[in-house]
C-alpha cells in the first residue's frame, strides 16, 4: 500500500466508507498483493491496483444491479488481463462476497466493520513501519561496525608471518604409459 493511502483522511459518508472498504479488501487480497509486489503487471502494478479499486467503486455506483458473481468475473478478468495471473483458488469469489457485504452494510448506514478494518490496517501498517525502521537501524549499525573494523585493520602494523606454507602444489610428473608384451597400453585407475 502506498504512503498516500496510509495517511488518507478517514471516511465520512457511505460512499467514502465503501471506497475505503474496497481499497482495504483489495490491498489485503494475497493474489493481488503478490502480483503487485512482483510487478507482474509491469512497473505500474501498484497504479493498476489503485485503478481497480476505483473501477470497482464506479461499477457499484453506476450499476446498482451488480452482484458478487459479476464482481468476481471482473476481478478474475482484471487479474488475467492486467497481471497475467489466472486466479483459480476461489479467492476472487471470496473478495467479491466481502466487498458486497461491505456494500450492504454501508447501504444500511453501518460503518463499524469498515472502521474496525481500517483501524486494524493502521495498526498493521505502523507495526510494519516500526519493523522496517528497526531493520534499517540494525543495517546502519552493521555498516558502521564494518567501517570501524576496516579502520582498525589499516592502522595495525604489518606482522611478519615467517615462511608461509606453499598453498599451490607442484605439478605431478606424468607417469609414462606402460605397454605390455602384446603392445597394448595399460589403463590405470585414478586414485
UniProtKB/TrEMBL annotation:
<dbReference type="InterPro" id="IPR019398">
    <property type="entry name" value="Pre-rRNA_process_TSR2"/>
</dbReference>
<feature type="compositionally biased region" description="Acidic residues">
    <location>
        <begin position="141"/>
        <end position="161"/>
    </location>
</feature>
<comment type="similarity">
    <text>Belongs to the TSR2 family.</text>
</comment>
<keyword id="KW-0698">rRNA processing</keyword>
<dbReference type="Pfam" id="PF10273">
    <property type="entry name" value="WGG"/>
</dbReference>
<dbReference type="GO" id="GO:0006364">
    <property type="term" value="P:rRNA processing"/>
</dbReference>
<feature type="region of interest" description="Disordered">
    <location>
        <begin position="130"/>
        <end position="191"/>
    </location>
</feature>
<protein>
    <recommendedName>
        <fullName>Pre-rRNA processing protein</fullName>
    </recommendedName>
</protein>
Amino acid at each position: 500500500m502506498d504512503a498516500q493511502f496510509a495517511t488518507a483522511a478517514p471516511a465520512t459518508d457511505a460512499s467514502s466508507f465503501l471506497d475505503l472498504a474496497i481499497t482495504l479488501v483489495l490491498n489485503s487480497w494475497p493474489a493481488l498483493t503478490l502480483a503487485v509486489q512482483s510487478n507482474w503487471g509491469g512497473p505500474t502494478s501498484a497504479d493498476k491496483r489503485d485503478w481497480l479499486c476505483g473501477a470497482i467503486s464506479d461499477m457499484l455506483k453506476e450499476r446498482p444491479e451488480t452482484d458478487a458473481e459479476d464482481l468476481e468475473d471482473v476481478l478474475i478478468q482484471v487479474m488475467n488481463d492486467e497481471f497475467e495471473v489466472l486466479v483459480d483458488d476461489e479467492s476472487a469469489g471470496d473478495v467479491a462476497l466481502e466487498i458486497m457485504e461491505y456494500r450492504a452494510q454501508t447501504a444500511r448506514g453501518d460503518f463499524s466493520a469498515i472502521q474496525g478494518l481500517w483501524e486494524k490496517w493502521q495498526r498493521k501498517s505502523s507495526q510494519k513501519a516500526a519493523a522496517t525502521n528497526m531493520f534499517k537501524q540494525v543495517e546502519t549499525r552493521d555498516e558502521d561496525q564494518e567501517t570501524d573494523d576496516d579502520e582498525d585493520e589499516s592502522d595495525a602494523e604489518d606482522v611478519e608471518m615467517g615462511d608461509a606454507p606453499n598453498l599451490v602444489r607442484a605439478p605431478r610428473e606424468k607417469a609414462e604409459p606402460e605397454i605390455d608384451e602384446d603392445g597394448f597400453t595399460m589403463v590405470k585407475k585414478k586414485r
